[in-house]
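Question (not urgent): is this output format expected?
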Amino acid sequence: MAVSDEQIGKNLARLRGDMTQKEVAAAMKARGWKWSQTTVWGVENGERPLRLAEADDLADILRASIVSFSRRDVLAALDLARSELSSAAVAAREALRTFSKAQMKLAIRADAVENVGETLPDGGLPVQQQLLLSMQDIVAEVERDLVAKRELDLANLQASKDRRAALYAELGEEVPVMPEHLVRPQRFVALVRERREEATRGEHPEAP
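Got this back:
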């Protein structure tokens, strides 16, 4: 079954993420296509078909696979999540490089202070603490925050379930059964949660 122009348009809207229609149009125009914001709007609303040659350049601009435009809803959402994670990984690497450079800059400045006979504030302890802070420490701190938030969310969810069960009990009715797709095992979610919990314990599992 062929994928409709409407589905392709929905996929484009997902894949462009934070990019505006105007930015997408400008990027396509820079590659020789006569695109405007109206063109992007037309494709996203299924009113203007996306040509194969255009899709090739568009996929490159959005850092996506060309087949992403023809994905069904659930697979399109997966493509978008992967694209978002890739972008976040790029940003995280750049942030870690900035951190490393800033740490070395602080070390150089601290040495310069001592080399001219000046005394560092509080005996240099605050500076030393900052210089001993590793990138792994920062990652572990973030992981701990995420685990704590999940535990809080689970507690709130359980409280909500308890209130719901009490309400149905008061009405003398049975609590509706959750749809099957909502109670199936979630192995990839479990994988991420296990890694986060290991990180909070100071463990660093090897990537598969």
